[in-house]
Amino acid sequence: MPSYPERSFPATGPLALQDSDRITLRRLRETLGPLVLDSVCIPRGDEVLVGQPVVQGLYEPVPPQPDGLLLLAGGAVDDGTLEAIRQAGQAGYCAVVLKARGADLAAAAAVAQEAGVALCTIPDDMPWRHFDALATAATGAVEPSADSYASVGMGDLFALANVIAYQVGGAITIEDPHGHVLAHSSLPHQEIDDIRRKAILGRLTPHRPGNSDEYQRVIRADGPVWFDIPEPDHTDRLAIAVRAGSQLLGLLWALDGAPALGEGAAAAIVEAAKVTALHLLRARTHRDPDRWRRAEVLAALLDGGVGGHTAAAQLGLATDARTVVVAFAQATPEDTPGLAGARTVDLVNLYCEAWHPQALCVAAGGTVYALLPVRADAGVLERAVKFAENVCDTVRRSTGLTLHGGVSMTGDVLDHVPACRRTADRVLRALAADPDSPRVAALEEVRSRVTLLELLERGSPATDLAPGPVQRIIAHDARTASTYTESLLAYLDAFGEAVPAAARLSVHENTLRYRVRRIQKLFGLDLDDPDTRLATWLQLRLHDLSTRT
C-alpha cells in the first residue's frame, strides 16, 4: 500500500418548499455544476423555479408535479422519450433530465422547445439514484454570497461547499465518515481531477490503493492534513475531520491543483470545519421528524401543559422515570442574541444522544433545556454537571458563545419535571447574578444565592412602612453619586472586618472605618444591634442582586 507524504498543521481551537425558499433552474445548474447537469435548451429561460425531482420510466404516464424536475430514466432517445417530454410540458414541469448516450438530441430539443419545458442531460455513467439525491439536496439551496458563511441557509451543504471553496481556494467536497459525497463545490475557475469527478458522479470516493490509509490519517489528526501526491492524474489534497465534541461527523477535502492553495488555506479549512459541523448536525436532525415531535411534548411537559402520564408514552419513558433538567443560557445574552437558534440546540442534542436514547432537548425563549433520564445513585448530579460542562465547552469552541448551565435536583417521577425546570432556571439566575460564579452549577452549590433570589421575588417590605435607613442610603447614593451602599455591603460581607472589606473596595482601611461611622451617624443606623445588622445586610444584598439580574 503506497504511502503519501503528509504535512500536518496544529489544531485551532422533506418538506414542501415555499416559492421564496426554492431555487431557479440557473441556480440548480450552478450548484451541481456542468459536470453533473448540462442544458440542451431552455425555452422559458433559466429563472424558472425548480420543484421536487420525479423519477419516471419511459412509456409510463407522467404524474402531475407543477414546476417538477422530471428525471426520465430509460434507454435510447425514441418516440417514448419525445412523448414524455410533451406530457411534462402539459403537466407544468420546469425541466426534463435524461441521458444522451451518444444520441442526437435535436428532435428532443425541438419537442421541448414547443412544449415550453427545459431539456437537460446528466453523464451516462452517473446512476439515477445518485443524481436524484443530489438534486433533492440542491433544490433546497438559497442564493448565497460567494464569500459569506452567514448567507448560507442552515443545512444547505451545496451553498456551504461553494463558500468554503471560495475561502480555502480549492474545489471542495463534504463527505460523511464513510466517504459518501454529501455535497461539492462548483466554482467554475477551480479545476478537479478524475478521482474527484468519479466521486461526484458516483457520490462515493472510488476505492484505490492507499485510500483507507489517507482517511484514517485525517480522522486521527487534530487539525488539517496536507497530502503531497506524486501521481500525475491525482491532485494534491488538504483535508480535515469535521467533529462536534469527540464525535466524527464527516470530512472536508480541498484540491490543491489549479489554482494552487495559498498559505492561509489551512487556517481557512479549520474555520470551515467548525461551520460544517453545525450544518451536518442540522441536516441530521431534519432527517429525524420524530425528534421534533418529542421536543414539542417536552416543551409542554416543562411548562406543566401536559402531565407526566400523558408525556411518558410519547417520550418513551416510564411515568416513574427519574430525571434531571439541565438549562443552558448565554452568559452575556446582549452580546449574541438568539441562543435558542439551531446551532446550540443541535450541539445539546448531540450530547443528549450520547447520554441516553430517550434524552432530549428543546429551546424555550432564550434557554435550551435538556431532559436527562438518570439512575438512582449518589453520583448522578456530578455526572449531570459534567454533561453540562462538556456542552458549554463544545458550544464555545464551535460557535464562540459562552454558556451558563444550571442543573436541577432529581425528579422522582415525570410529574416533577416542571419543578425541576424552575429549579434549573433559578440556578441560571444565580450564576448570572455573580460574575465570579462558575459556568455550571447544581442547586446545592448556589443554594444560598437561590434562596436570596427567592426572597427577592416573593418577599418585599410592607408597603405602608416609611423608607428605612437602607432605602435612604440607596437614595442618597443615587442623588450624590456617593458609594455608601457599596461600602456598607462590603463591610457587612466581611463580618465587620475593615481590612478585607477595604481591600475589596481598593480603599484604605481607615477610610472605610470613617465611612461606616459616617453612614451610621447620617442615617441613624445601629450596627451594634444584631437584628439591625442582619436586616441591613439582607436588604443591601437583595438590592445588589436586583441590579445584577
Automatic annotation (TrEMBL):
Gene3D superfamilies: PucR C-terminal helix-turn-helix domain. Transmembrane segments: none annotated. Residues 485-542 form the PucR C-terminal helix-turn-helix domain. Residues 311-430 form the CdaR GGDEF-like domain. Signal peptide: none annotated. Belongs to the CdaR family. PANTHER family: CARBOHYDRATE DIACID REGULATOR, CONSERVED PROTEIN. This is PucR family transcriptional regulator. It comes from Streptomyces rapamycinicus (strain ATCC 29253 / DSM 41530 / NRRL 5491 / AYB-994).
